[in-house]
C-alpha cells in the first residue's frame, strides 16, 4: 500500500508526499472532497509514510510498521468514526483519543489519528478537539476526513492544512470497476451514476438501478403532467425509506442535468441517457432549459433539507415535486403539458 495506489488525485498526493519528503508535515490535515475518491486511502498512506522504517516520502510496505498499519493492528495509528447507534461523534470519544495522543509513540515514529466523518463530530466534541489542534505535540498528527468541510467549526478548519480531493473522472471509475470484474456496459453506467465516487459506484452495483430509474422518471413525469399523480405515488411509496429517498433524489439530480444538457443542445449518447430510454426523450422533447434548472434547484433544496435539517423524506420529495411544478407551471415547455392545472 503506497501513494501510488491513489488514482485521480495527483495534486493532493503531490502536496502530501512533498511535505513528508521535506519533513514538514503539518500537525493537522483536513482532507476534503466527495466521498469515495481516495481521502481515506491517502490518510492511511500518510500514516504508513510517517512510520515506515525505510523513511523517504512513501512506505516500503514490507517493514514491521507498514505491515501492522496495513493490518489495522498498529498501536500508534487510530481511526475515530461514528460509534454504532450514534448520529454524532460524542465528546467522550474525542477525549479518549486525546488522552491517547498525550502519550508518545509506542512502536512507530509517529502517532496518527484519523477522524472520519469529521463533520459528524458534535459541537462539544469539535471544541474538545480544538484544544489539541491549538497545542500540537511533536510526533502526533491528526487527519480530519470529510465530504462536508463547511459543516466543521471554522475554528477547526482554520487550524488544519486543507487538501482538496477532486471527484474522479467517470472513465477512471469505469476502469477501476472493470479491473474489479465488472462487465464493461455495467461499468459504463455505474461510472455515469458515480458522481465521481468509486464508493458510490460500488454501492449502486448491488442495488436495483432499474427500479430507481423508474421512480425518478415517474417523479419527473408527475412534475410535467396535468396532475402530479405519478410523482405523488413515488413519494408515497418511499415512506420511511430515508436512504432510498436520498438515492432517488441524487439520481433525479443527475437526470435533470441530462435534461439540461439535452435542452441546451448537448450531445447525446451518455451511458445514463441511453439507459433512461424513450421516457427521458419524451421529457427532453417537451421541457425547457428553465424547467430543468427549476428541477435542479428543487431537488438540491430537498437534499439539503434531508441532510442538514433532518427533514421528513416523504415531505421533502413532495415539496420538490411542487417546486418543480412551480405551483402553477414549470415554464413554457412543460406548461403545455399542464395547462389549466392547479398546484
CATH domain class of the largest domain: Alpha Beta
Which sequence of strands runs across the widest sheet? Answer: 2-3-4-1-5
* Mean pLDDT level: 87
Low-pLDDT runs of 5+ residues are 327-343
Topology order in helix (H) and strand (E) letters:
HEHHEHEHEHEHHHHHHHHHHH
Sheet of most strands: 5 strands, parallel
Shape: elongated
CATH architecture label of the largest domain: 3-Layer(aba) Sandwich
Q: How many strand segments?
A: 5
Strand content: 5-15%
How much helicity do the residues have? Answer: 55-70%
Find the CATH topology of the largest domain.
Answer: Rossmann fold
Report the radius of gyration as a whole number of Å. 23 Å
Overall structural domain count:
2
Distance between the termini: 56 Å
The H-level CATH homologous superfamily of the largest domain, spelled out, is: P-loop containing nucleotide triphosphate hydrolases
Tally of helical runs: 17
Overall structural class, as computed from helix and strand content, comes to alpha/beta
Amino acid at each position: 500500500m503506497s501513494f501510488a495506489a491513489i488514482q485521480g488525485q495527483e495534486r493532493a498526493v503531490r502536496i502530501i508526499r512533498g511535505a513528508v519528503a521535506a519533513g514538514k508535515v503539518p500537525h493537522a490535515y483536513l482532507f476534503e472532497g466527495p466521498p469515495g475518491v481516495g481521502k481515506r486511502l491517502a490518510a492511511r498512506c500518510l500514516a504508513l509514510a510517517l512510520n515506515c522504517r525505510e523513511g523517504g516520502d512513501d512506505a516500503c510496505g514490507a517493514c514491521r510498521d507498514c505491515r501492522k498499519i496495513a493490518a489495522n493492528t498498529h498501536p500508534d495509528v487510530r481511526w475515530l468514526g461514528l460509534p454504532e447507534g450514534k448520529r454524532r461523534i460524542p465528546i467522550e470519544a474525542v477525549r479518549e483519543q486525546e488522552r491517547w495522543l498525550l502519550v508518545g509513540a509506542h512502536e512507530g515514529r509517529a502517532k496518527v489519528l484519523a477522524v472520519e466523518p469529521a463533520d459528524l463530530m458534535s459541537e462539544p466534541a469539535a471544541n474538545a478537539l480544538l484544544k489539541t489542534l491549538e497545542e500540537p505535540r511533536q510526533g502526533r498528527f491528526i487527519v480530519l476526513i470529510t465530504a462536508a468541510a463547511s459543516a466543521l467549526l471554522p475554528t477547526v478548519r482554520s487550524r488544519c492544512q486543507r487538501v482538496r480531493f477532486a471527484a474522479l473522472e467517470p472513465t477512471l471509475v469505469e476502469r477501476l470497476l472493470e479491473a474489479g470484474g465488472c462487465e464493461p456496459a455495467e461499468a459504463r453506467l455505474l461510472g455515469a451514476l458515480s458522481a465521481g465516487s468509486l464508493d458510490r459506484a460500488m454501492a449502486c452495483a448491488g442495488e436495483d438501478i432499474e427500479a430507481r430509474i423508474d421512480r425518478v422518471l415517474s417523479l419527473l413525469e408527475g412534475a410535467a403532467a396535468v396532475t402530479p399523480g405519478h410523482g405523488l405515488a413515488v413519494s408515497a411509496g418511499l415512506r420511511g425509506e430515508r436512504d432510498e429517498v436520498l438515492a432517488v433524489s441524487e439520481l433525479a439530480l443527475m437526470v435533470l442535468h441530462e435534461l439540461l444538457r439535452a435542452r441546451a443542445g448537448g450531445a447525446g449518447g451518455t451511458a445514463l441517457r441511453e439507459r433512461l430510454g424513450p421516457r427521458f426523450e419524451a421529457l427532453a422533447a417537451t421541457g425547457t432549459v428553465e424547467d430543468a434548472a427549476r428541477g435542479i434547484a428543487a431537488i438540491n433544496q430537498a437534499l439539503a433539507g434531508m441532510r442538514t435539517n433532518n427533514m421528513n423524506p416523504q415531505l421533502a420529495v413532495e415539496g420538490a415535486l411542487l417546486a418543480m411544478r412551480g405551483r402553477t407551471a414549470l415554464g413554457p415547455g412543460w406548461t403545455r403539458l399542464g395547462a389549466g392545472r392547479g398546484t
